[in-house]
Amino acid sequence: MKDKPVVIGVAGGTGSGKTSVTRSIMQRFSDKTILMLEQDYYYKDQSHLPFEERLQTNYDHPLAFDNDLLIDHLNQLIEQKSVEKPTYDYKMHTRSEETVHVEPKEVIIVEGILVLEDERLRDMMDIKVFVDTDADVRIIRRMMRDINERGRTLDSVIDQYINVVRPMHLQFVEPTKRYSDIIIPEGGQNHVAIDLMASKIQTVLHEKGHTFSK
């Protein structure tokens, strides 16, 4: 049987730099096969709801995510089985019919705003990371993403941030920081913290019997 993969959770608020941290991990472990499971891909299917109801979805609440499916897929990948990762259609506000085929890898990064909120997910992680970035930086990044990638208007992004994103961050995301093993201020720009995290990952890989080509 192959060595058990190392599972790393990367959490943090919207626009905190979770993706930058994940890319930094991948660059530092280019001798390993790595995959990423984005929690954003695991929003619940809402095809049974009228479109008007879907528009009211609070994507920053824990109940928006299908963690049961995410956990099932993570378990299968740990057992060296492939999965069909779902995708989400943000324009229709429901799960797309398309899936992404994912093969098991040596390192699995589970990334999302609330991946540390569910105790079942936390228990599956070898290393838990929280990316901690100032709110003003995060809102600017979210504006750019939602306007450029999701076709949102500036007014709608600001309204959603004030009425939904910020209160959900304070209620659900920020408290999960206490579950993290490593806190990385300012995301991918904090090279010292990322180097320390890389050392920890290397230790866990060694403990699990993985060998390094470097």
TrEMBL record:
Annotated localization: Cytoplasm
Pathway info: Pyrimidine metabolism; UMP biosynthesis via salvage pathway; UMP from uridine: step 1/1; Pyrimidine metabolism; CTP biosynthesis via salvage pathway; CTP from cytidine: step 1/3
Any GO MF annotation of the entry: uridine kinase activity
Source taxon at top rank: Bacteria
Reactions the enzyme catalyzes: cytidine + ATP = CMP + ADP + H(+); uridine + ATP = UMP + ADP + H(+)
UniProt xrefs under SUPFAM superfamilies: P-loop containing nucleoside triphosphate hydrolases
Phosphoribulokinase/uridine kinase domain ranges (all copies): 7-192
Top EC group: transferase
Documented EC number(s): 2.7.1.48
A cellular component annotation (GO) from this entry: cytoplasm
A single GO BP: CTP salvage
Binding site for ATP: G12, G13, T14, G15, S16, G17, K18, T19
Pfam families the record matches: PRK (PF00485)
Assigned keywords, A-Z: ATP-binding, Cytoplasm, Kinase, Nucleotide-binding, Transferase
Gene3D superfamilies the record matches: P-loop containing nucleotide triphosphate hydrolases
Family according to the record: Belongs to the uridine kinase family.
PANTHER family in the record: URIDINE KINASE (PTHR10285)
HAMAP family: Uridine_kinase
Name of this chain's protein: Uridine kinase
Organism from which the protein derives: Halobacillus yeomjeoni
